[in-house]
Amino acid sequence: MILREAPPTSGLRPKWSDLIGAFRGPSNLEERIAEFLDVPEVQLECSGTASLVIAFEYLKTLSRRRKVVIAGYTCPLVVLAAEQAGLRIAVCDTVRGGFDLDLTHLGKQLDDETLCVVPTHYGGALTDVDRVRCFIQAASREIFVIEDAAQSFGAKYNGRPVGTAGHIGIFSFAAGKGFTLYEGGCLYGETPEIRRGLRETSTRLRNHKRLLELRRSLELLAYHFLYNPLCLSFVYGGPRRYWLKRNDPIRAIGDYFTGPIPLHKVGSWRRKVGCQALSRLRDHLDRTRDRFDALSDQLERACPEISTHSPAEGYQPTGSFVFVTFTSGKACDEALRVLWSLGSGVSRLFACAIDEYPYLSGRITSTTTNASDLARRTLIISTSEMMEERQLGAIYRAIRS
């Protein structure tokens, strides 16, 4: 029985002082997030996926186009958000062996029906959104870019905050993220007109679900009790092992989702807790990036045949995990088989390429050879401070074998 489990990502550890300080603390979380990102303003929403639905619905008011192009290696929630907004979905493949969008394949997906493209950032790697946007604008000025920075709140690209290179940026504050409200997210619009339109769209779509907000508040409270190695072995590791025994890796890594996506207002108490936690985030990110750099270097020295996708110059991901890509899917599967049984902070980010999820069958019109190959050969290793030397030792041995 595993009594200590490391989380798959480096989340900001909750502190009881955040809850205590929230009773008399400020609730201006949107202003503080905007200050953190050094942008004029942001829009707080109940989840990153809800933010994406709002972005899609807003863009629909500007155009008669109804197709969205998403990354081949991304979260299934992106598909559900597009479907809820009534958009048709096409998929752009990644470059071979990497996470950037393949611009040759992207060009084949762009047409007179394309409303927007959604490039995705990751906790362990960033996508060149500037390159994608320039490519799209050369094809059409009527196609928007929504920057999916759900995993990358606090990341930077050439000194700029990630999430600000597209027309709209999306962030997630879900459980396990660097900064969390248990469930939450926010939007950034490039221009005052876009920001105004996003707020109007949110007001139009939002439901007053007080019971759901009460549930989220209780879940955030429980998160403070449970986000530690002992409790994670039960609430995170237990369900994962249950589904692995039943040969269901999609549910094991938490990749099975259903709609509809809720849209409601984040309550005052969670905003106040968020204000307290946000004040600790910069230090957390600095420590996480130090562990990310050290782990990447150690892995590349110990196992030169694998790739950790080290960031290019000017790229500064949050470093919440390290990508490890093996030479074959078989080698990756064998390492996972060993490490999943040890509670060692190792997992897959996504179970497969987005067009290969059985429960999304029929919703996607294109295939992604490179993303499929990448997903089969890639796992993630947590950079959480809960990782222990014995766990890292087991990881090195499993990867070398």
UniProtKB/TrEMBL annotation:
Q: Which UniProt keywords are present, listed alphabetically?
A: Aminotransferase, Pyridoxal phosphate, Transferase
Q: What is this protein called?
A: DegT/DnrJ/EryC1/StrS family aminotransferase
Q: Does the keyword Amino-acid biosynthesis apply?
A: no
Q: What family is reported?
A: Belongs to the DegT/DnrJ/EryC1 family.
| Entry's Gene Ontology BP terms | polysaccharide biosynthetic process
Q: Name one Pfam family in it.
A: DegT_DnrJ_EryC1
What is the scientific name of the source organism?
A: Microvirga alba
Cited InterPro entries? DegT/StrS_aminotransferase (IPR000653), PyrdxlP-dep_Trfase (IPR015424), PyrdxlP-dep_Trfase_major (IPR015421), PyrdxlP-dep_Trfase_small (IPR015422)
Q: Name one GO molecular function term.
A: pyridoxal phosphate binding
